[in-house]
Amino acid sequence: MADERELTYIGAVAEASRTVLLEQENAFIAGEDVAGAGGVFGSYRGILDEFGDQRIVDTPISEEGIIGLGVGAAATGLRPIVDIMFMDFMGECMDEIANQMAKMRYMFGGSASLPITVITMSGGGINMAAQHSQSLEAWICHLPGLKVVAPATPYDVKGLIISASRDDNPVFVVLNKLSLRNRGHVPEESYTVPLGEAKVVREGSDVSIVTYSRMVGESLTAANTLSENGIEAEVLDLRSLQPMDTDAIVESVKKTQRVVVVHEAVRFGGLGGEIAAQIQEDAFDYLDAPVARVGAPFSPVPFSPVLEQAYIPNAGRIVTEVNELLNAA
Amino acid sequence: MELNNETLLDIHRRMVRIRTFETEAGRLAEAGKIPGALHLYVGQEAVASGIMSHLSNEDWITSTHRGHGHLIAKGGEFGKMFAELFGRATGYCKGKGGSMHISNMELGMLGANGIVGAGPPIAVGAAFSIKYRNTQNVAVTFFGDGASNEGSFHEAANMAALYKLPMLFVCENNGYGEYTPQANHQAIVDVADRAAGYGMPGVVVDGMDAVAVYEAADAAIERAKAGDGPSLLECKTYRFFDHVGVRGMGLSYRTDEELAEWQKRDPIHMFESRLAELDVLTKDAAVKVHEKVLADVQAGIEFAESSPMPDPATLLEDVYA
Amino acid sequence: MDIGVIANPASGKDIRRLTARASVFDNQEKSAIVRRCIAGIEGLCPTAHIYYYPDSHHITEAALTQCQMWSQPIDAEFAATADDSTLAGYHLRAMDVVISLGGDGTNRAIGKSLGDVPLIALSTGTNNAFPVFCEATTAGMAAALIATGKLPVDIVAPRTKALHITFENGETDYALIDVVGTHDVFHGTRAILDPSKFVFAVLSVADPSKVGMTAIGGMARVVTDEQDIGLALTFSHDHADPEHEVQAPIAPGMVRTVRFTEIRKICLGETGNFTGATMLAFDGERERVLAPDENVTICVERDGPRRVDVKACMQLATCPDSVMPHQQRA
User: Fold this and answer.
1) Which residues of chain C have pLDDT under 70?
2) Element housing A261 (H / E)
3) What is the pLDDT of residue C83?
4) Phi first, then psi: what are they for B128, rounded to 5°?
5) Binary contact (A100, B118; C-beta < 8 A)
6) Residues 214-253, chain B: which have Cβ within 8 Å of A?
7) Other C-beta atoms within 10 Å of B81: how many?
């Protein structure tokens, strides 16, 4: 498929944003450095010139104000896309996320709709240290009323952002910093990737690797290594974390009887625990081994490249974990 | 907007509606008939009424934990309000919000709010929405002296002024952040002073004088609609009941003498005296207004009490659209 | 060597900041002004005693915290209302000089009770005709010079005029610059702004270089501080007689057409009778509700506060042979 059009992961953000603004007259983008600068990583390059400063709005560095702007604008009929540069900054706006955005519809007895898309970034690997490298998706997945997606590929970035923007609920699109320059096939036309639908990105029969975001790539690399030793791993990209495609997970477990859950977030209290619990609830009888988890150790993200490399899960650790799981069985 | 007799009577009626609803709600709460906590608005009626008499359903407001008065002044129906306080299925929020989250989107009321200071950023969003659509409306955020110490207020004030949003920041300074007197929670006395730091005008208004509030709101709304941006109105007022409930938790944080001093300036009594002097509303006619409103409140309570409780099967409805 | 200080926390905060872009005077600025005054006093007369009005916003108290001078709050029952300034003025009648921070309203309240004491009136209000804008440090130095008896009070602090109002029921009131009858019915935000509601006005000073009612009158006919006359105006809202029409700064940032049916001077002591208004405003603030046909009697007298001319103080202190403007009047 040599003629397939390719975009970078970050380029897919820009194209999705443009598509949303073209398709929805009530959609606008707001965030720090999004308009004049086009986004710190270029997520919104060209949007200001094409759509003008009413549709893309530079905000002060005021995360609580930004989320509040989104909540108020959404409740009163607009469809905001708000950008929280790094999800580490959610601490600055957690009230507006947790107590306002997530609950307003329910508290109001269903009379309010909050069609907000929050675009933010997670992950380490670029030496940004403890306050700019975290993977905090578990925080927001714990809040009823929010939806959360974490795309791994440029294709899913575009499709999930467009889906998020059309959804009448608040949806967090958690991007990954180290994936920004990754290239992949992205159709030019508008399309959606459904919220709540996982995707098998590699078929396998010996073990399921359930993962999302950048760890999808690491898992595929690990699967190739494992394949050289005759182990065929199935890699399931969750894509959506809330709602989570439990059916797809169970389906894969039934096929392989062994699971390793992989995420970049700290292992303790991470989504891996939730996924493991769901598997034992829904597919316990199919398991031939305990559910294994790969995640970051219980430590802040370190700065030094050597330490950071030791911290972030990678293909090697996934291979090790899979081998241990299979040997234990 | 000219202060004609019709407007004066309208403001009066809104104030009496709030006072009567809140007094009865307080009575029911003390009798143990309302679950949870009530933060009552008695004493502050002139603020909500003076502002809201300018607004239509297309103007948005955000409220506070002390939010019943704002919803009533915005046109809230007693029956649906009491039903919500009682946790009934017929309440404004189907019993899912209660006193601290009571709201009605059709009336442009974006909710009471249990989080101090959470409203101003949301009102910024509503004002942004108005500006985006280019309609002649405003967003009003009500907050207290206590909330003016929250970062959310400051972020919202900065953004509203930056974008010249059609917005009013209405600080109801009742002298206490919960139980802490203002002098113990901020070094300034006039919250209005904070406006200058954000590039908007701030004025001090007698919050016990409905006409003063009305006139200040008139000027601020005119500015907002002309594209001149937000204003901060600090209304000096007082809560006649406790922070929570009527007599509250019995904490000794203010004196009876202080309360009595403020009650001498009861916003409804002062307004009625002047309306009688002007022959706009005689004492007898005022009594009739009170009686009518009380009957409406009682009908509202009856509606609420005879309303069904929510079906537990509705528990998971409305989490998502 | 006793110096009084009255800083009014309520000035500079009313609706005119919305309607007319009037200046905002936050309380930190007022406190800084008092601090500079004190520095001026301390520089020339560190042993002076400061007696001050303990305002609810602690403006003066905050200014005194970093200062070594002897100071004491006025011992009286204050109620945090406009009457406080009058009460404070009463308690400061034995001072050598008093410094006030406020607008016309503040000084009117002080003027009711201060008697013969020289008054340095620093403007922190809105559209002020009575107080002056001047550097507070210098004002403090002028206060010190007066307190130490180094200056002739009659020359540096001449008496201003005042307006005396008598109501039908025998009550009286007092204003410094203007009394305006309007068609308003509520005190509301107190500020008078709408020329279409003006009925009549009596002015002690008509100064077109100021803003507000004194400027409206001053655009028609100038009456200086020194002249022993006042000005009576009746307003018109229908006919357009260009002879009786002015473009006047009715408030900061607001120039409006104002029309008169009559402009006449009144002599000191001459009483004028006025009727037809529903509200009476004193020095810019709606204060007194009138019955529909209630008649008010107003006259101008030269018995206002002794207002200190800070520039004259400093000039005379440096060059005792200087001749001051009001000396030329005589």
Assistant:
1) 125-127, 189-190, 239-240, 324-330
2) strand A259-266
3) 87
4) -60, -40
5) yes
6) none
7) 24
B100-152 tens-digit pLDDT = 999 999 999 999 999 999 999 999 999 999 999 999 999 999 999 999 999 99
Query: Which pLDDT value is given to residue C237?
Result: 81
Q: Which of B23, B87, B105, B38 is nearest to B307 (CA)?
A: B87
Which residue from A72, A114, A168 is facing B121, i.e. has the nearest CB? A72
β C162-167/C172-175 pair status: antiparallel
Among B205, B211, B209, which residue's Cα sits nearest to residue B170?
A: B205
List C-alpha distances in Å: C285 to C4, C18, C202, C216.
25, 16, 14, 16
In 3D space, the residue among C77, C80, C134, C91 whose CA is nearest the CA of residue C5 turns out to be C91
Instruction: Evaluate if residue A93 carries a pLDDT over 70.
Output: yes
pLDDT digits (tens, 9 = 90+) for C31-58: 999 999 999 999 999 999 999 999 988 9
**Six-digit token string for A207:** 């073990």
**Chain C residue whose CA is closest to B231:** C18
Contacts of B223 in chain C (CB under 8 A): 18
Tell me whether residues B110 and A72 touch, CB distance under 8 A. Answer: yes
For A299, half-sphere exposure in the C-beta direction (CA atoms, 13 angstrom radius) is: 13
Phi/psi at B249 (5° precision): -95, 5
Using CB atoms, list chains with 3+ pairs below 8 Å to chain B. Answer: A, C
> Which chain A residue is nearest to residue B91, measuring alpha carbons?
A109
Q: Which ipTM score applies to this complex?
A: 0.96
In the block, tokens 């399931």 appear at A236
- Residue B31: its pLDDT value, please? 93
* Residue C223, φ and ψ in degrees, nearest 5: -130, 120
Residue whose tokens read 């202190």: C317
Residue B241 has pLDDT above 90, yes or no: yes
Q: Which residues contact B94 (CB under 8 A, 6 or more apart)?
A: A109, A110, B310, B314, B318
- Quick check: A79 contacting B, CB < 8 Å? no
With an 8 Å Cβ cutoff, are A65 and B158 in contact? yes
Gap between the Cα atoms of B266 and A202, Å rounded? 74
pTM of the model: 0.93
The whole-number pLDDT of residue C28 equals 87
CB contact under 8 A, A99 and B123: no
Q: Are A240 and A149 in contact (CB under 8 A)?
A: yes
Average pLDDT, stretch B145-174? 98
Q: What distance in Å separates residue B152's CA from the closest CA in chain C?
A: 22
Taking CA–CA distances from B118, the nearest residue in chain A reads A96
Return the residue of C nearest to B192 by Cα. C13
Q: Which of A132, A142, A185, A263 is catalytic?
A: A132
CB B201 within 8 Å of CB C25: no
C57/B189 touch (CB, cutoff 8 Å), yes or no: yes
Question: If you average pLDDT over every residue of chain B, what do you get?
Answer: 96
Q: Name every chain B residue with its beta carbon within 8 A of the beta carbon of A167.
A: 321
H or E element, residue A294: strand A292-296
Average pLDDT, chain A: 97
> What is the C-alpha separation between C112 and C55, in angstroms, rounded?
19
* pLDDT number for residue C330: 41
Tell me if chain A has a CB within 8 Å of the CB of B199.
no
What's the mean pLDDT in A62-84?
Answer: 98
Percent of chain A with pLDDT over 90: 98
| Contact check, Cβ <8 Å, B93/A105 | no
Residues of chain B in Cβ contact (below 8 Å) with chain C: 3, 188-190, 192-193, 195-196, 201-206, 209, 211-212, 214-216, 219-220, 223, 231, 274, 277-278
Handedness of CA B118, B120, B126, B128 (dihedral sign): negative
Q: Is A132 among the residues known to form the active site?
A: yes
Going by pLDDT thresholds of 50, 70 and 90, the confidence category of residue A3 is low
Residue from the list C15, C27, C188 with its beta carbon closest to the beta carbon of B190:
C27
Structure tokens belonging to residue A93: 């706006």
